[in-house]
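go over this chain:
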Amino acid sequence: MKKTSLLMTALACVAFATQVEAKGQTILFATWRGCEEACHGVVDYLSETAPDAEVVILDADRNHDRLKGIVAEARSKDVDLIISWGTTVTLATAGTLSDLNDPSFNHEIPQVFMIVADPVGSGIIETLDDTGRGNLTGTYNRVPENVTVDTLRRILPDMKSLGLLYNPNEKNSILKRDELAELLPSLGVRLVDHAFELSEEGAPQIEDIAGQVKWLKQAGAEAIYVGSSSFLRANASIFGAAAKDAALPVISPYEEMVQNGDALISVAARYYDVGQLAGQQAAAILVDGKSAGSLPVARIKDFAITVNLDFSREIEIWPPIDLLGIADIVR
C-alpha cells in the first residue's frame, strides 16, 4: 500500500510542496493555484498506474516571481517528468517555439501540460496532432466557442451582443478575446469587450470589476462570457454579484462558478477528468516508455452543462425545459 504525506517546504521559487512518498521515478508537478480537482485527477491516476513514482508539487500561488526557478529545480532534482498546470506555468517552464534555443526553458525533460486554453495560439506547440517539441505533449480541454454561443442562445434566442472582460496581462485572456472577435460576427453576434486597466504593478484591480460589468451593460451586452480569466475566476463572487445587479446572465467555462452561484451556466470539461487524461499522458511516458513529443495532445471529448437556478431567479431569465433536461442543476 502506498503511503501519502504532505511535505511543507520553504523554497525560493514556490509557495509550498506536496510530496507523494514512493520509490522510483520522480515527477515535478508545477501548479498555479494549488492542487485542485485537475491536480487530484493526475495524482489519483498515477497512484494506480505508476505507484512507485514520487510526485512533488510546487505551487506558485498565482505569483509570477515564484515560477522563475522551477526549471532549475527540476534539473537539480533530476526529475523524470514535469507536469505544468495552466498557460502561465507552461510558458514559464517550456517557453514557446521561438524559445527553443533558450537554455533557461525546459527542452530536455519530458513534460506534459494541462489546463492550457490555446496551446497553439500561445505559441507553445505547432499543432495538437504534432507538437513540434521533442519533449512536450499535453491535454486540451476547452469547449469550441461556437458551442458556448449556441448554448447561451438556448437561453437568449435573440441574443445579438455578448460581453467580455479580459485581462491584458494574461496571455489566454487576450487570445480568447481575439478568438471571439473573429468568430462572433459569423454567428451574428457583436462582441462588447473591455480590458481591465492595470495597476502600477501590472495587475487588474478587484475594485474595478463592478464598474466594468456595469460598463458592459451600458454598452449593450445582453450576457457576459467569462472567457479565459484567472483573475475573474479568483474573484468570482464579486464578479457574479455585479452581473446579478446588472441582470446579465453569465456563461462560464469554469463549472465551479456555477456551482458556487457566481454564473448562470457553464459548458465545461470536468477538471478531474482533465487530470485523469493528463495522468494517461504521463503514464504513457513513464510506464510505456513513449517519447513525449511523439504523443499528440490528448483531447477531452465529454463536456457537462451545469445551470444555477438561483442565479436564474435573481435575474429573472430562465433556461428552457429541454436544456434543463440535460443539465446538472444547482439550486
Remarks:
- Residues 160 and 189 are 5 Å apart (CA to CA).
